[in-house]
């Protein structure tokens, strides 16, 4: 023990506190006994020694130490607090009260003594007295939070829930990180029937106080369910562009395929019909080009549309998207993809036959527009029918091949034998393709009545589409669930 | 009582059975359900698997129309918090976020403005610009949740989420959800976790075999639920 003499009191007392924290009371008692000889001017060896003894159940020894301490260190708060605790352990409230009163007299304005006094009064059932002591304790507590906790608990004891809520909120102001305070505010709110506030504070206790921050002002603008037409079209075109990006990400040649594919078809048909079968007409290459390229645009769009609504099932179930979205995306996608290629190929084709270039080329946008309308009308119709008759989906490819032969893509439909040619003029695709040829191949203005016929036919189908899409939305969703 | 956003009157849903083994021609996941969703409340719907919880959410969202009864939406926007639906695995997280954001009702410009926020929230880092097929399932769930956090519909329908990604992200997702709830977002929460419902909800309904049982209070409803679960 000799080297302890060299230690400063603070360091020495720390050595004594260590076994106390580890609840080795007997060992601690020994330390303090030694210190009582070594550090006579300090209250800690007496007070801590008494506490160590009290913890071991030696109330008598502790009492003797404390009596000595009260004589020697009457101005020390800890002496009076420990004495009160000692009295409490002996279940002697009167003595406890007396110690606290002496303590308050000897060490005025000590919040710990005042708070302890409040605690005792509360135990004795004198809530008003407790409140009075607590108020003094709070006045002298400065930074300490404990009297404020006691203040809130007092309100709870009175079952004065509005007061309790207020006082716990004050605790939160002083110490925002104290989870218990939020929980207690929740309890007070619940007692008052304020379930919403109760939940907010309960959640704040669990997930952190920032939950209580007022929400960002909610946007009052249009939100899901009431989407405007402009936004809808923006959505369709964005999705179409993204689909193209996704598609091209899978292949090496990307967009080049848009040009390669019709070129391959062109070569096959040119060789097969033009050379082997000798069915080719004059300038057969450009003739084929005018048929094949618009046809591929049409066929791609239609075949992609066919199962689009069926495929959009999960999206329709999870969002309020209109079913028209799905065929529209496919048509947009096919158009974005094919149109540049179409113009590019037609331009190339024209270069091979410079005589065909005339002012009548200006009719081309009108023809393209008519084809777009027709594609939209038929594609949307097909997409709407397939969910109800799934088997039709298997016929789409065959149907398109048949339609290709009936539209005069690789020959002039008017050259068909008998009155087949006459019937074929009611096929709008046949009309469109001959319009392309009139403008590009012959340098003539297109037959406006046939274009008018295409537009009219599209409009009629559009009308039907409108009714189907507005009345059948729920059934589209249903059909996919079966 | 506060404003009513959505009401169901005697709603029922039937699906045709196609399997030969079934004794009935129809299954009826919902039978004569009536309920009101009030502004600002958090409504919990408890039910065992197959009790019709998800069907009810689809009715509330307007995606599915009932076979009987009426759904009245008093001009409220409703969104279902769906995490993984509709990702294109060839596209980057960024592109998917753009489309999903627009699908949720934002204009392209608005989505682009919030994209940085989404990226930061998702904690995907450089993966944000990688195609989604390179993502782990946890990563795509994170992306889905991150996009969903930017929406503020009048009524948010939540179907058993809050189990997104790893432990850390789960806490973050929960916190975001709680923040929405405590800031007065109207939420309909469907779950079979009674603790979650007890913790979060102002009102709780129990869905059992397609019928709705309403208790006096949340505690009451939980007791009913326990009884049903024990009986089963």
Please provide a written account of the structure.
The complex is a heterodimer of chains A (482) and B (232). Chain A is built from 24 helices and no strands. Chain A starts with 8 loop residues before the first helix and ends with a helix. In chain A, helix 8 packs antiparallel against helix 9 and helix 19 packs parallel to helix 23 (448-471). The longest helix of chain A has 28 residues, at 325-352. Chain A is 72% helix and 0% strand. Chain A is an all-alpha fold and 482 residues long. Chain A has 2 domains: 1-108, Serine Threonine Protein Phosphatase 5, Tetratricopeptide repeat, CATH 1.25.40; 229-481, no CATH class. Chain B is of the alpha/beta class and 232 residues long. Chain B folds into 2 domains: 4-77 and 186-231, P-loop containing nucleotide triphosphate hydrolases (Rossmann fold, 3-Layer(aba) Sandwich); 90-152, no CATH class. Chain B is built from 7 helices and 9 strands. Chain B has a 6-stranded mixed sheet with strand order 5-6-7-3-8-9, sandwiched between helices. In chain B, strands 2-1-4 form a 3-stranded antiparallel sheet, covered by helices on one side. The two termini of chain B are 36 Å apart. The model of chain B has no long low-confidence stretch (mean pLDDT 81).
Topology, please?
The complex is a heterodimer of chains A (482) and B (232).
Chain A: H1 9-21, H2 25-38, H3 44-56, H4 59-72, H5 77-89, H6 93-106, H7 111-123, H8 127-140, H9 146-157, H10 161-174, H11 179-191, H12 195-207, H13 229-249, H14 256-276, H15 284-306, H16 308-311, H17 313-318, H18 325-352, H19 364-385, H20 396-406, H21 420-424, H22 428-440, H23 448-471, H24 473-481
Helix pairs in contact in A: 1-2, 2-3, 3-4, 3-5, 4-5, 5-6, 6-7, 7-8, 7-9, 8-9, 9-10, 10-11, 11-12, 13-18, 14-15, 15-18, 15-19, 15-20, 15-22, 18-19, 19-22, 19-23, 22-23
Chain B: E1 4-16, E2 26-38, E3 42-47, H1 53-61, E4 68-73, E5 78-81, H2 93-103, H3 108-122, H4 137-148, E6 155-159, H5 167-182, E7 186-191, H6 194-200, E8 203-208, E9 211-214, H7 218-231
Parallel strand pairs in B: 3-7, 3-8, 5-6, 6-7
Antiparallel strand pairs in B: 1-2, 1-4, 8-9
Helix pairs in contact in B: 2-3, 2-4, 3-4
């Amino acid at each position: 023990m000799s080297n302890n003499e060299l230690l400063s009191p603070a360091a020495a007392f720390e050595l004594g506190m260590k076994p106390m924290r580890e609840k080795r009371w007997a060992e601690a008692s020994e330390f303090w006994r030694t210190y009582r000889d070594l550090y006579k001017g300090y209250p800690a060896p007496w007070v801590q020694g008494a506490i160590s003894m009290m913890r071991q159940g030696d109330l008598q020894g502790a009492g003797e130490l404390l009596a000595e301490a009260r004589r020697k260190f009457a101005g020390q708060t800890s002496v009076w607090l420990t004495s009160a605790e000692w009295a409490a352990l002996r279940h002697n409230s009167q003595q406890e009260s007396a110690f606290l009163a002496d303590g308050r007299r000897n060490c005025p304005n000590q919040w710990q003594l005042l708070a302890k006094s409040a605690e005792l009064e509360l135990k004795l059932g004198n809530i008003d007295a407790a409140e009075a002591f607590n108020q003094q304790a709070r006045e002298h507590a400065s930074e300490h939070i404990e009297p404020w906790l006691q203040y809130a608990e007092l309100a709870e004891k009175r079952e004065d829930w509005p007061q309790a809520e207020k006082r716990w909120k004050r605790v939160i102001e002083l110490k925002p990180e104290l989870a218990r305070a939020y929980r207690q505010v929740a309890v007070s709110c619940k007692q008052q029937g304020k379930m919403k506030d109760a939940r907010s504070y309960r959640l704040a206790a669990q997930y952190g106080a920032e939950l209580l921050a007022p929400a960002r002002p909610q946007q009052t603008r249009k939100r899901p369910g009431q989407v405007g037409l402009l936004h809808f079209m923006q959505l369709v075109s964005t999705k179409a562009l993204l689909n193209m990006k996704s598609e091209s990400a899978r292949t090496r040649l990307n967009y080049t395929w848009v040009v390669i594919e019709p070129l391959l078809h062109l070569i096959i048909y040119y060789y097969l019909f033009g050379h082997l079968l000798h069915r080719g007409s004059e300038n057969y290459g450009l003739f084929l080009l005018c048929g094949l390229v618009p046809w591929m645009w049409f066929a791609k769009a239609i075949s992609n549309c066919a199962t689009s609504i069926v495929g959009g099932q999960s999206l329709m179930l999870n969002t309020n998207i209109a079913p028209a979205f799905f065929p529209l995306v496919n048509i947009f996608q096919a158009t974005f993809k094919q149109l540049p290629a179409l113009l590019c190929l037609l331009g190339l084709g024209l270069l091979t036959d410079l005589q065909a270039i005339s002012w009548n080329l200006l009719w081309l946008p009108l023809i393209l527009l008519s084809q777009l309308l027709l594609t939209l009308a038929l594609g949307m119709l097909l997409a709407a029918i397939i969910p109800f008759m799934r088997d039709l989906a298997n016929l789409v490819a065959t149907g398109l091949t048949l339609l290709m032969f009936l539209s005069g893509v690789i020959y002039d439909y008017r050259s068909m034998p008998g009155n087949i040619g006459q019937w074929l003029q009611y096929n709008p695709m046949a009309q469109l393709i001959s319009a392309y040829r009139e403008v590009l191949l012959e340098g003539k203005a297109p037959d406006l009545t046939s274009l008018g016929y295409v537009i009219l036919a599209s409009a009629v189908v559009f009308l039907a589409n409108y009714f189907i899409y507005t009345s059948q939305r729920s059934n589209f969703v249903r059909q996919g669930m079966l | 009582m506060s404003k009513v956003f959505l009401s169901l009157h005697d709603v029922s849903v039937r699906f045709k059975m196609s399997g030969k083994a079934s004794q009935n021609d129809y299954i009826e996941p919902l039978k004569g359900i009536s309920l009101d969703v009030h502004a600002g409340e958090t409504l919990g719907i408890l039910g065992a698997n197959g009790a019709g919880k998800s069907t009810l959410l689809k009715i509330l969202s307007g995606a599915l129309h009932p076979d009987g009864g009426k759904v009245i939406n008093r001009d409220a926007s409703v969104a279902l918090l769906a995490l993984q639906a509709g990702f294109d695995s060839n596209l980057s997280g960024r592109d998917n976020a753009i489309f999903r954001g627009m699908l949720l009702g934002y204009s392209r410009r608005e989505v682009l403005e919030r994209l940085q926020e989404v990226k930061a929230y998702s904690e995907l880092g450089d993966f944000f610009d990688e195609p989604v097929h390179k993502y782990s399932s946890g990563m795509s769930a994170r992306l889905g949740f991150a996009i969903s956090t930017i929406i503020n519909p009048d009524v948010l329908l939540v179907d058993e989420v809050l189990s997104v990604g790893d432990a850390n992200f789960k806490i973050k997702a929960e916190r975001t959800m709680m923040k929405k709830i405590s800031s007065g977002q109207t939420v309909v929460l469907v779950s079979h976790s009674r603790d979650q419902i007890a913790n979060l909800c102002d009102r709780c309904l129990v869905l059992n075999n397609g019928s709705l049982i309403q208790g006096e209070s949340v505690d009451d409803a939980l007791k009913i639920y326990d009884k049903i679960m024990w009986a089963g």
